[in-house]
Amino acid sequence: MQEGQGRKMKVKKGWLAVQVGTPEEDGGCERFVIPISYLCHPLFQHLLDKAHEVYGYHTTGPLKLPCSVDDFHHLRWQIQKHKSHQHHHHHHLSTSLSFNSC
After folding, report:
1. How far is the CA of 1 from the CAs of 16, 75, 76, in angstroms?
2. Per-residue pLDDT tens digits for 1-52
3. What does R_g of the chain's alpha carbons equal in angstroms?
């Protein structure tokens, strides 16, 4: 779920607002609302570790993630693909995936 620029909406229970991208990117930073279940996924946990290295723990507003918008879209696709695949086949995801800026 992606929200409009400059419009802050209340985040529903079970969801988390994140901000990805950089001001240098064409679209700048974008805000997304993601399910909190992402927090348990190894790929997202890796991104959270990077966010801690870059921004620390104390930030205001949405959780900032050091990732391009395109890479974040790819990350979400990988998580959804894994959830769907795991649900049907109970396979495990390799954590060796990498992203350009994540």
Report:
1. 11, 14, 10
2. 554 444 567 889 999 999 998 777 777 899 999 999 999 999 999 999 999 9
3. 14
Q: CB-based contacts of 69: which residues, under 8 Å, 6+ apart?
A: 20, 21, 25, 27, 30
Distance of CA 48 to CAs 4, 12, 20, Å?
24, 21, 12
Q: Is 77 helix (H, G, I), strand (E, B) or coil?
A: helix
CA atoms in the 13 A half-sphere facing the CB of 26: 2
Residue type, 8: K
Beta strands in the chain (DSSP E): 15-20, 30-35, 63-65
Q: Are 42 and 93 in contact (CB under 8 A)?
A: yes
Give the chain's length.
Answer: 102
Residue of 27, 37, 46 lying closest to 94 (CA atoms): 46
Q: Residue 94 in contact with residue 74, Cβ under 8 Å?
A: no
